[in-house]
């Protein structure tokens, strides 16, 4: 078979181009450090690498979400710590106010101190994060959640009960904050019972308690209301929950109803009443508790009835402050638990990221030892092809003429 000169040149050129292409391909791999430079180099590995890269990106998003959540929770924990300290300080002032030797001026001085605590708590309740978002407003985080009425001076919650959730892992949504109602206007589920004297009471009766005396009693946990009546002969009776049965009352008497015990001292006036109920049902509000304390301490004590109202207010406020502190500490414990969980999720995420990185490396990264050997081999092949082309191209009859 006769091989034409054109055929020899075409085959030589084809061999040169192929060898040069393989040589440059290995050179690109060495330069990029990747075995798979183009999807055509290894379609299956390239496809799997895309899937692993997407998983890597999602894992990084979870990591970023955990950073954001940790910052928010750390700031909330700091604020809750300040709130707990403020409540403890208010309780200290309340105990001081119970000293019977204090004058009106002394109590007014304590009221001024509690006012400072009150304003501090209001500022903490309206704390913001670094981006101007209010921590305790729930979903309504663009405006202050606690607003003081200019007329009455009372503080009202303007936020909602929503919890902002962050997707911190594939199967975990974590609250990045807690709403103000949960912190300032609620009590822990284990909170006990609360006694409150009616603001219009004119007698001198004061109470101690209530305490649980018999948890197996019929009607236990329902609470009750005591209504006092004074007969024309001066005798005092009371009925519970609007009942018609009048029970004689005596100073220092311990009354047991629905498994709850309440000790009463002093003489009630006709129409006086005392309500005993679960703390959860008493519309808890830390700010209103402080407002009641301030008002009571600022009111001069001129009569025994004034003193009784002061003592009853302080007694109720003491339990309300204890319940408020328990509520804040419960939320703070929840924040701490979430921060610990984030640490665990970080460790899991880091391990997952390392596995993704290793898998991606196995799929597309270059083995330099193998690549350098291949590079040298391709270089020799290219040089051989070039030498063969030169030798073949010189085979011409014209050289023999």
Automatic annotation (TrEMBL):
Gene3D superfamilies in alphabetical order: f41 fragment of flagellin, N-terminal domain
InterPro entries: Flagell_FlgL, Flagellin, Flagellin_N
SUPFAM superfamilies: Phase 1 flagellin
Subcellular location: Bacterial flagellum; Secreted
Biological process according to GO: bacterial-type flagellum-dependent cell motility
Primary localisation category: other
Name of a matching Pfam family: Flagellin_N
Domain Flagellin N-terminal: 3-140
Gene Ontology MF terms in the entry: structural molecule activity
Assigned keywords, A-Z: Bacterial flagellum, Cell projection, Cilium, Flagellum, Secreted
Bilayer-crossing regions: none
Tree of life domain: Bacteria
Gene Ontology, cellular component aspect: bacterial-type flagellum hook; extracellular region
Family: Belongs to the bacterial flagellin family.
Protein name: Flagellar hook-associated protein
Organism of this sequence: Azotobacter vinelandii (strain DJ / ATCC BAA-1303)
Gene for this chain: flgL
């Amino acid at each position: 078979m006769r091989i034409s000169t054109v055929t020899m040149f075409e085959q030589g050129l084809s061999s040169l181009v192929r060898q040069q292409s393989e040589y440059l391909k290995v050179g690109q791999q060495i330069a990029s450090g990747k075995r798979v430079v183009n999807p055509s180099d290894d379609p299956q590995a390239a496809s799997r690498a895309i899937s692993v890269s997407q998983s890597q990106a999602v894992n990084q998003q979870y990591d970023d979400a955990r950073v954001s959540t940790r910052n928010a929770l750390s700031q909330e924990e700091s604020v809750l710590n300040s709130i707990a300290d403020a409540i403890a300080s208010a309780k200290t002032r309340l105990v001081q106010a119970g000293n019977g030797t204090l004058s009106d001026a002394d109590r007014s001085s304590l009221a001024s101190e509690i006012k400072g605590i009150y304003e501090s708590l209001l500022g903490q309740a309206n704390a913001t994060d670094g981006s101007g978002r209010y921590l305790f407003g729930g979903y309504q985080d663009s405006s202050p959640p606690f607003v003081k009425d200019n007329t009455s001076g009372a503080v009202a919650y303007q936020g909602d009960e929503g919890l902002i959730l962050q997707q911190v892992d594939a199967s975990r949504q974590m609250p990045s904050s807690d709403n103000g109602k949960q912190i300032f206007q609620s009590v822990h589920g284990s909170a006990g019972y609360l006694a409150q004297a009616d603001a219009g009471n004119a007698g001198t009766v004061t109470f101690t308690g209530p305490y649980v005396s018999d948890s197996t009693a019929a009607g236990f946990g329902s609470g009750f209301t005591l209504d006092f009546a004074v007969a024309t002969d001066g005798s005092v009776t009371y009925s519970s929950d609007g009942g018609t049965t009048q029970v004689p009352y005596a100073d220092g008497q311990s009354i047991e109803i629905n498994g709850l015990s309440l000790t009463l001292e002093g003489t009630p006036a006709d129409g006086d009443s005392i309500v005993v109920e679960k703390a959860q049902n008493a519309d808890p509000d830390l700010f209103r508790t402080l407002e009641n304390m301030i008002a009571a301490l600022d009111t001069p004590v001129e009569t025994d009835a004034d003193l009784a109202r002061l003592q009853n207010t302080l007694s109720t406020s003491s339990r309300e402050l204890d319940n408020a502190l328990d509520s804040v500490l419960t939320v703070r414990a929840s924040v701490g638990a979430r921060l610990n969980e984030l640490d665990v999720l970080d460790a899991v995420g880091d391990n997952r990221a390392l596995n993704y990185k290793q898998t991606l490396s196995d799929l597309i990264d270059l083995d330099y030892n193998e690549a350098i050997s291949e590079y040298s081999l391709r270089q020799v092949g290219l040089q051989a092809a070039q030498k063969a082309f030169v030798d073949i191209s010189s085979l011409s009859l014209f050289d023999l003429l």
